[in-house]
Amino acid sequence: MKFFSLCIFAFSLAASSALAVEAAMADHAGIPADQLSFFEKNIRPALVEHCYQCHSAEAEKVKGGLTLDTRQGTVLGGESGHPGVTPGSLSESAIYTAMTWADEDMQMPPKTKLPDEVIAHFRKWIEMGAPDPREQIIPNASGGKREINMQEGRQHWAFQKPASSAVPDLKDESWARSTIDQWIQAGLEKAGLKPAPDADRRTLIRRIAFDLTGLPPTPDEVEAYVKDTSPEATKRVIDQYLDSSRFGERWGRHWLDIARYAESSGKEVNLLYPHAWRYRDYVIDAFNRDKPYDQFLKEQIAGDLMRYDNKRDQAEKIVATGFLAIGPKGHNNRDKRQFTMDLVDEQIDALSQSMLGLTLACARCHDHKFDPVTQRDYYALAGIFLSSETLFGTYRQLQNQNTSTLIELDPAAAQVSALAALPKADYATLKRNYDEALNTANNIRDQVRSMSSGQRDNNAQNFLRVRSSADRADAIKADLDQFHADGSPRTLAMGLLDKDSPVNSPLLIRGDLKQPGDTVPRGLVEVLCAEGEPRNISEGSGRLDLAFFIASKENPLTARVMANRIWLKLMGSGLVATPDNFGLMGQKPTHPELLDELALSFMEQGWSVKQMIREIMLSRSYQMASAYDDQNFAVDPDNKLHWRMNQRRLDAEAIRDAMLAVSGNLNLYPIDGSPVARAGEGREGLFSLFREISTQPYSYRSIYLPIIRDQIPEVLSVFDFPDASLVNGERDTTNVPGQSLFMMNNPQALSAADAFASRVAKHPGTPLEKLTYAFQLAFARFPTEQEMTSIKSFWMRFPQQAAEGKNTPSEKEKAQMATLSAFCQSLIASAEFRYLN
Fold first, then answer.
1. Residue 10 has what pLDDT?
2. Which of 433, 520, 677, 832 has a beta carbon 3.0–4.6 Å from 274's, enabling a disulfide?
3. CA angle, 709 as apex, 708 and 712 as ends, to 5°?
4. Residue 430 belongs to domain spanning
5. What region holds the DUF1549 domain (predicted)?
6. Are residues 460 and 598 in the same domain?
7. Are residues 468 and 581 in the same domain?
8. Which residue from 819, 676, 666 is spatially nearest to 748, judged by alpha carbons?
9. Angle of CA points 710, 713, 714, to nearest 5°
């Protein structure tokens, strides 16, 4: 236990008083929450398990003068003089060189190379800048093992139930239209700030349209709103977009970020998940139908265990549990028990961050370093998921050591299929090929078995012969299993089902399977339960209990976390700046009373996401302009008090979809399923899919593009598409040269500009009227006088240059189209096209 004590010693003082906790929070405020979580989950446990015995302050003898239990020692390195870790540089990080065994004279650990996954984690950690929250160990300091006091832990603001508060008296009672505005105004008045003026109508409808649908408003929609002077005009526009099917595609994508949605396993092997798309479509449909958020969560945790109205409803609830099955997995892990525990850990991590805003997975190897969450809490949850069977598909092949079946949905559920029916003759051929491949595999296996032990031992090729023949048969069976005997496609889904017999998990010392401790009953997280409230589960897996526990109005976190997520997507920044971490290392809310009011309103309104969105959008706070003010900026440069609307860059999907929309080429009715479903599971399917993604000019909305971990389409990755293996409540937003170069040179952008020009050319009117129409499509406004002067000058000069002195009618026409295309491309490539004001 001495290494465990050492691991937590640096934080024992921080737990001793509220003041110390605040100091720790301030010290680590510069480390993004996702990076802090990555270190605690992947780096610290590996250092404790593999390195501290020889390279820590409590080692009997520190080898090579290298200590890895402090941030300073890890960076400085040992007696060799080489830096241990150089943030951002693998080649200048001696620790990474040692663990990869790239240098024969420096191989650590010396006897057994670290698992590939651990090395990959260190690589990623160094490349992200080696964020490290650890403090220097203080010699002779008092302290020891951190003791978590649950009573004190429950005093943290996020663990207390939301409560309504009276709004302070306001100096100016004419500005606020709602409770939201009153709390915003109270904060501004306290700081001596004034709110920005209201946004103009054209700016506002563009903001509303993109926020609700991810698409630009049409010129007709803009003009109708501008001319509607009634008090209900804005509400009507909001309701119009809320009722659109495009709403679910927009807001479903927000949840898919949080749900780490992807259609492959990622990690070292990256196997395809051909049936992940069903979960994507379930999410889109749930947002379009405004499914109550508490019900939405319950179905994703335990939909297979819930009551259902009919077979279709049952199928939808089963598909919802795909949330727990679509995460990244290390399929090449030869230790089945380790694979299972890693799978459970990923499920706990995704569920806790997405729904509770807590990093519960940090308690896998030790009590949580900051939050009042014990290792027993973690293994109480682990038992729930160990009592459930995760069905993700994938057949056995050379690099896939961990396979699974899928859930077949009842035919009466009438679920769509991504595959067309297979003609009976083709099915018969496929069946015959499988039988032949299976016979071949069995014959080879029998031949090897008949050999003497010496022959088998001396012929390493025998293993590959047997395995390759079996893989070929399994690959054909994977295709065969997609169909019934009559050639009709089977409706299959990823998801969870309860095991026949529930199990409890032992508490694993340091998270090590080889060091099991006491068995922990399946149960709930103690700090979120009332003092003395029973939290152990005695029947079934416990997933249904967990679902109702998380989605309960009594849970202090669930409504707050989602209310904050909705506010973040509409306002550009969260009331809590760390949307996935409401724990002690997360940021405090800028407007705690407002956050509580939103959470209470959310629950009182039946957990309606649409109603919460409507409430925020109708506030004057949402409808403010993004105008700059010197005095306000001097006091609040980060706009934490919301004295103006944040100017926001569109996310990757909205930029791509907007290009297709203005060009007139956007297909709003994509085919069922996903290209991944038609590619199949195997490596050949993966390679063919990559070729398709790179060459196929998909015209449907970006949410339907195939999302393969580590192989994200360039049009998305260049505009900061998130890591599909992690919970992402807030995307990074960068403004780098590569983005401008993409809009200027990428074939997709050029193609969109040409199509945009063709659409504008067909618009009736003079050339200047056509160019004005292009402005309306791209920016939802008319050009200013100065812009019109520039447009006229451009239209007079550019066609002559494009014609290169040729005056034939056909050359003039080509020159005019080239001019129009260049003009349209300049609009698409502009900052205004990519930003909301």
1. 32
2. 677
3. 65
4. 424-488
5. 180-388
6. no
7. no
8. 666
9. 105
| Residues 391, 445 within the same domain | no
505 strand-pairing partners: 520
Strand-strand pairing, 516-520 and 648-649: unpaired
pLDDT of 464 strictly over 70: no
Tokens at 273, concatenated: 């998940």
529 and 380 housed in the same domain: yes
Tell me the whole-structure pTM to 2 decimals.
0.84
- Of the residues 648, 677, 697, which one is the last residue of a structural domain? 648
Residues whose CB falls within 8 Å of the CB of residue 181, separated by 6 or more in sequence, listed in order = 175, 619, 620, 621
Q: Does residue 2 surpass a pLDDT of 60?
A: no
In a domain, 625, yes or no: yes
Average the pLDDT over 466-495 and give the result: 82
Which secondary-structure segment (H or E) carries 588? none
Q: Which of 5-14, 358-367, 413-422 has the lowest mean pLDDT?
A: 5-14
CB 53 within 8 A of CB 3: yes
**Peptide bond connecting 556 to the previous residue in cis, omega within 30 degrees of 0:** no
| 199 domain residue, yes or no | yes
Query: Residue 285: what are its φ and ψ, rounded to 5°?
Result: -65, -40
347: Cβ contacts below 8 Å, ≥ 6 apart:
324, 327, 385, 390
Q: Are 492 and 315 in contact (CB under 8 A)?
A: no
Torsion of CA 339, 341, 345, 351, to 10 degrees: 90
Residue with tokens 């060009």: 663
> How many Å apart are CA 730 and CA 569, to the nearest integer?
8
Tell me how far apart the alpha carbons of residues 173 and 187 are, in angstroms, rounded to a whole number: 14
Integer Rg of the chain from CA:
29
3-state secondary structure 474-490: HHHHHHHCCECCCCCEC
Question: Looking at residues 439-456, what average pLDDT do you find?
Answer: 70
Cα separation, 739 vs 650, in Å, equals 12
Spatial separation of the C-alpha atoms in residues 86 and 82, rounded to whole Å: 10
Same domain for 278 and 391? yes
Do both 186 and 92 map to the same domain? no
Whether 212 and 618 have beta carbons less than 8 Å apart is answered as no
Band (688; pLDDT cuts 50, 70, 90): confident
For residue 576, CA distances in Å to 255, 493, 638 come to 18, 35, 14
Is 695 within 8 Å of 708 (Cβ atoms)?
no
Last residue of a domain, one of 528, 550, 572: 550
Per the structure, the count of domains in the chain is 5
Residue 432 is assigned to a structural domain of this protein: yes
Please check the confidence at residue 172 and state whether its pLDDT lies above 60. Answer: yes
Q: Tokens 């340091």 label which residue?
A: 510
Q: Give the sign of the dihedral formed by CA 113, CA 116, CA 118, CA 123.
A: positive
Q: Is 268 strand, coil or helix? A: coil
The yes-or-no verdict on residue 689 having pLDDT over 90 is no
Side chain identity at residue 389, one-letter code: E
Three-state secondary structure call for residue 380: helix
443 and 567 assigned to the same domain: no
Contacts of 234 (CB under 8 A, 6+ apart): 204, 208, 225, 617, 618, 623
- 40-44, 176-180, 776-780: which has the minimum mean pLDDT? 40-44
Q: Is the peptide bond before 799 cis (omega within 30 degrees of 0)?
A: no
**What is the distance between the alpha carbons of residues 605 and 361, in angstroms, rounded to a whole number?**
32
For the chain, what percentages of helix, strand and coil (3-state, to nearest 5) are there? 50, 5, 45
What gap in Å lies between CA 771 and CA 432, rounded to an integer? 62
* 729, 569 Cβ separation under 8 angstroms: no
